Amino acid sequence: MSRFAKLLLRLLRGSTDANFAFDDLRHILLRLGFEERIKGSHHTYRKAGVEHKVVLQPDGKDAKPYQVRQVRDIIVANGLGGEDEQPL
Questions:
Q1: In the predicted structure, residue 86 carries a pLDDT above the cut 60
Q2: How far apart are CA 61 and CA 8, in angstroms?
Q3: Helix, strand, or coil here: 63?
Q4: Rounded-to-integer distance, Cα 88 and Cα 84, Å
Q5: How many folded domains does the chain comprise?
Q6: Across the strands, what pairs with 24?
Q7: Which one of 31, 60, 81, 84 is separated from 2 by 20 to 30 angstroms, measured CA to CA?
Q8: Over the stretch 25-64, which tens digit does the pLDDT of each residue have?
Q9: With left for phi above 0 and alpha for psi between -120 and 50, is residue 48 left, alpha or beta?
Q10: What is the CATH number of the domain that holds 42?
Q11: Beta strands 42-46 and 35-39, pairing class
């Protein structure tokens, strides 16, 4: 199982929202084809075909738990994470 697959599975399980590394969440979004724009500490992600944009801010080295849940909800609602996603 690839690193991306392990991270995605961990995100989708939802058992470690309070302890999810910001860089790992960022890696997932980029791998799923989201475009990143950084302005200060705000990282904004958009993808064609996805209605909602994702705005993340690091909380130390971790992502904020509510933002992890937001990313999970967007992935599930849009059916992302399949075999046809962009490789890094």
A1: no
A2: 18
A3: strand
A4: 12
A5: 1
A6: none
A7: 60
A8: 999 999 999 999 999 999 999 999 999 999 999 999 999 9
A9: beta
A10: 3.30.920.30
A11: antiparallel
